[in-house]
């Protein structure tokens, strides 16, 4: 299989560029908005500990798997399965499902990202009085959503190394600088140390089945595993690139930003006497209040914070468009420009009900489904339960089963090890990393994922 890059496909210009783009996909609203609130709901430090274990034991093996599958075939997420001889069943349950996860999550991820634009502006103009009023006003949320989508498409249509790589190389380092700035402000608030303690001291009595499942789900979401992203980005990777070290960089950066996300938020939450278990509203409802209450410079810190959140969301949404776009470019021979614009416009149209589900339309706000025992209300939450939770887990399971048991993992394993001097060396207890990876992809990953899936659909009792 050749990885000749056609004019439309493109290739990463440098290892740094690939790492920045892949880390840019991984680092997003999941790290800065989702990770802190889930940590807060699951007991603080203990959750952080379990999360790190999940990333190491399940996340990394799957990250390597997707990247190598992409580079091995040089194809999009559907093409990668087709090219390795997968029949229609695997093509649909692993390839097409991943593609639809990316597309449908994009439709509501863009809505949330649009809110961040509103908050950046509001830090200077104060036009947002409270979150609920803002979110229920279609005249605000739709234009911000549209603006965010246009920026995303604009970057994607400029191509792999010219658009995505260039943007990520600039945006990711800015993100790091801004994070450090906000952490500095947060931990120097009076009373902030209580929050640091809550966040960093694990209380192991708080760990139970639910904590583990919540941590696993968060790891899939955050590392961008199960969305076809790493397959697609891996397909633009030259053979000379060391997948082991790139994957380690991506995984550790993603985890680092999540950990720093908590360090920004918890000290401030405690300093201002807020509830760390406040849930999904933690960032949008609590933080602006905290910025407002700062004696000086609150609006600058606040604007920086939401700018940071918007940048993180942008480098993620870019990758969500890229998955279906690369499929249309490869398989349907569309031009990159046409693919990016059409997907962007469609995702925007499909996202409108999500945008209106914050109160602007009673129909979309009040609609609810019974999601395996728990009720999900509002179009956005329903989409998140289906595409942002259930289908990701299914894609991960099918991909691990396909590579581990149908394709035979040796082929992918060889691809992972290209260029790595240690991969086939017997390092610990006479076992090489390659043998370890094969064991993980065949047994550990599918078994753990199956447990998560059974818990999600309620066969195993767990409240995630
Ligand atoms: N990893 C992103 C986050 O944590 O926000 C979410 C995500 C973005 C997943 C893009 C997948 C993806 F393609």
- Please state how the strands of the largest beta sheet are arranged side by side: 1-2
Count of β-strands: 2
Globally, the shape reads globular
Largest sheet: 2 strands, antiparallel
Can you count the helices?
Answer: 19
Residue fraction in strands: under 5%
CATH class membership: Mainly Alpha
Output the helix-strand order.
HHHHHHHHHHHHHHHHEEHHH
Q: Percentage of helical residues?
A: over 70%
Gap from first CA to last CA: 42 Å
- The radius of gyration is 21 Å
Low-confidence blocks of residues: 1-7
**Helix-strand makeup class:** mainly alpha
Question: How would you state the average pLDDT, rounded?
Answer: 88
List bound small molecules.
4-fluoro-L-phenylalanine
- Count structural domains: 1
Query: What is the fold-level CATH name, i.e. the topology?
Result: Amino acid/polyamine transporter I
> What is the annotated CATH architecture?
Up-down Bundle
């Amino acid at each position: 299989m050749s990885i000749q890059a056609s004019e439309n496909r493109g290739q990463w210009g440098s290892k740094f560029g690939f790492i920045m783009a892949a880390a840019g996909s991984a680092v997003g609203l999941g790290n800065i908005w989702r990770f802190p609130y889930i940590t807060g709901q699951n007991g603080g430090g203990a959750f952080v500990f379990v999360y790190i274990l999940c990333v190491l034991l399940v996340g990394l093996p799957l990250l390597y798997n997707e990247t190598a599958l992409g580079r091995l075939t040089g194809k999009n997420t559907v093409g990668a399965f087709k090219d390795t001889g997968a029949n229609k069943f695997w093509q649909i349950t692993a390839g097409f499902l991943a593609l639809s996860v990316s597309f449908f999550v994009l439709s509501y991820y863009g809505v949330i990202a649009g809110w961040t634009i509103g908050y950046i502006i509001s830090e200077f103009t104060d036009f947002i009085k409270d979150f609920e009023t803002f979110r229920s006003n279609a005249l605000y949320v739709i234009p911000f959503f549209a603006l965010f989508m246009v920026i995303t498409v604009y970057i994607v249509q400029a191509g792999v190394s010219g658009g995505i790589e260039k943007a990520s190389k600039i945006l990711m380092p800015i993100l790091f600088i801004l994070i450090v700035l906000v952490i500095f402000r947060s931990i120097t608030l009076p009373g902030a140390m209580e929050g640091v303690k809550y966040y960093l001291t694990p209380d192991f009595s708080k760990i139970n089945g639910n904590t583990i499942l919540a941590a696993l789900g968060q790891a899939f979401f955050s590392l961008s595993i199960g969305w076809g992203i790493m397959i697609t980005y891996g397909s633009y990777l030259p053979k000379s690139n060391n997948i082991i070290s790139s994957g380690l960089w991506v995984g550790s950066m993603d985890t680092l930003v999540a950990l720093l996300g908590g360090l920004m938020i918890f000290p401030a939450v405690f300093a201002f006497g807020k509830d760390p278990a406040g849930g999904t509203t933690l960032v949008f409802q609590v933080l602006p209040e905290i910025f407002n209450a700062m004696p000086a410079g609150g609006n600058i810190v606040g604007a920086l914070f939401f700018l940071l959140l918007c940048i993180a969301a942008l480098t993620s949404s870019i990758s969500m468009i890229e998955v279906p776009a690369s499929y249309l470019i490869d398989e349907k021979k569309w031009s990159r420009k046409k693919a990016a614009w059409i997907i962007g416009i469609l995702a925007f149209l499909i996202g409108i009900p999500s945008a209106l589900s914050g109160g602007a339309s009673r129909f979309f706000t009040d609609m609810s489904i019974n999601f395996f025992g728990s009720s999900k209300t509002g179009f956005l939450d329903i989409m998140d339960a289906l595409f942002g939770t259930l289908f990701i887990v299914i894609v991960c399971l099918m991909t691990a089963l396909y590579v581990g048991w149908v394709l035979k993992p040796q082929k992918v394993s060889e691809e992972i090890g290209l260029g790595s001097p240690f991969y086939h060396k017997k390092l610990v207890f006479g076992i090489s990393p390659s043998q370890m990876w094969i064991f993980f992809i065949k047994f550990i990953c599918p078994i753990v994922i199956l447990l998560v899936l059974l818990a999600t659909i309620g066969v195993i009792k767990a409240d995630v």
